[in-house]
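Agenda item 2: (2S,3S)-3-hydroxy-2-methylbutanoyl-COA complex prediction
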Amino acid sequence: MAASDTVTSLAVEDGIAILTVNNPPVNALSAALRDGIAARIGETSADPAVRAVVLICAGRTFIAGADISEFGKPPRGVPLAEMIAAIEGSPKPVVAAVHGTALGGGLETALGAHYRVAVPSAKVGLPEVKLGIIPGSGGTQRLPRIVGVERALAMITSGEQVPAAEALAMGLLDELVAEGELLAGAVAFARKVLTEGRPLRKVRDMNEKMEAARGRPEIFAEFRRANARKFRGFDAPEGCISAVEAAVNLPFDEGIAREREIFMPLMQGTQSKAQRYVFFAEREVRKIPDLPDSTPVKPVESVGIIGAGTMGGGIAMNFLNAGIPVTIVEARQDNLDRGIATIRKNYEATAAKGRLKPADVVSRMGLLTGSLDMGSLSSQDLVIEAIFEDMELKKETFAELDRVAKTGAILASNTSYLDVDEIAAATGRPESVIGMHFFSPANVMRLLEVVRAAKADPEVVATAMKLAPKIGKLGVLVGVCHGFVGNRMLAERQREATRLVEEGAMPWDVDRVLFEFGLPMGPFAMSDLAGLDIGWSRETSRGETLREKLCEMDRRGQKTGAGFYDYDSGRKASPSPVVERMVLDHSAAKGITRRSFDDGAILERLVYPMINEGAKILEEGKAIRASDIDMVWIAGYGWPVYRGGPMFYADTVGAKAVLAKMEEWETAIGPEFAPSALLRRKAETGEQFTGAA
Ligand code: T1G
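Presented output:
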């Protein structure tokens, strides 16, 4: 017997049916694939020549899950749960043969099989929580039956991929077979099942671990408590926990029904919509319309960095982590020594926490060279300037770099605001100059804005974009403008945060609203953390702004135990009566009659001007697409993924509502609120920015 359709095929060899799935690129469970697998399983059940079935995938991976692009569309084909039940109900043993990643519905499919084998490089996981949902086809009921409640909770609520060896140890896999010999290994395993007369092992019938957990409800209470901070704001983790609780407390079929009940509203909700949108946005960001994937890229095997300050050091670490040698140049020996010592200290701190091997500290530091001589930057493939934000200084530096750097080297500036075209013009080779804007702390934050200078070669831009993932960054291509995408929008929020405080809110009100929205912290807590005296000096202070007044009182932020907030010895913040008084006086001195703002009004005033600025950025072509802007905010500023980014958020409230407020403020406050033409158009046509909300 040999049956096939476009995505599945069946071949029987000596009693073993090989059911091959072939649905590139990741064998996602489209309707056609679910239908195909169910049909093929039906055929093997009916065929007396078949004694066992091996389910294996062609291409780079085992089934990577449901087809996310089908979500929210009318259901077609055999439901996944039914397909899995068909596998589990097969009268002949089914062995799932795993390579690549068995994820989500893919792992659920494998859990429907009676046995599972894998190559050592394989990984398995239930990443649904990252899409704002729970495993929806039995994963929450079957996984704990094999690995126990604690492990299942950890896997399902984190969505992390578990390597094959670990999966074997926890009983999730039955055997590892030699790399590159999955089919032969799986067939041999199937024969062993037959010759040893092993049972049709159905996970649904394994109840031992569930019974053991039944008398221990505290497992769940404790897990919720321990992870409250991590799960803050997200709906899906609680869904995952409740579903595993159901696995413990209900018979299998009722547990499956409960899983469905939890799954459906999550899938239809805004959080999951946002998180699925982010999944695709993250992949879309690499696609640059005028730079096809075939654009040649330059090798980057050595890197130079100018400036050993906080940014320069953090940037260097990204390359050292990736095994790329770095030469760091500073003007003064003491600054160079301090910069290198900080890098070492950071690595040692990570090693002390057990997150880096001591040998890796040595090897990474071994890739780092310090120098006081720009001449040391004559051989590197890429040089990144990370000095003080001063145009004249940057121009001088690039002119000198132009003299020393090798022909063809990429010359990048880490400027946060300045005109990269002007910097490029200081060299005789503007085609080699771009911006590479890292976010602080540069070794931690995932965002890298790649600033496309007007004259930059396509090859140079493509190289920077392809380099980003190699150093663990999400590269977003942006155009030259003041502050690029992220800081340009941030400036809007910052201005309004300050004004809100002058007009009637307190700093802690503003911060709380943003925190509750899902951001890691608000602007005033952030300023206290960074230090209020950055760029401030007593000599030049005019005592006009709140910030200047605070600095003059030596309230310079967390480091002085006081800033916008008071801090206790554990650095816990509390609202300050001194600041409250000062804010009231400040408003009075400016002749402002304070009024009250509710949380909704505060949020609108902070976020809508950002959206308007985002629309201007799109209009001017400084970002390729709305979803790129959203990725900047998620990867660079901690915007909560479950809100999809500012442009996605705009689509959830509607351009009309944003426009109405901008118009109101333009009239009442000033021209800085003038709505962008694009926002106006979206409001008029009802079109979305992202088309995904
Ligand atoms: N559905 C649709 N498209 C997908 C997809 C999926 N599940 N996974 C990947 N793609 C597309 C992706 O957009 C990209 O397209 C291309 O495939 C290659 O992906 C019932 C509810 C498997 C580890 O969450 O984690 O099962 O950009 O660039 O780096 O409980 O893709 O080329 O046009 O990422 O090698 C659970 C999601 C679903 C897995 C491969 N599964 N995928 O990484 O390639 S929910 C997931 C991944 C579910 C059940 C439920 C990764 C990968 P394009 P890529 P990669």
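Discussion summary: The two ends are 47 Å apart (CA to CA).
Owner for follow-up: CH.
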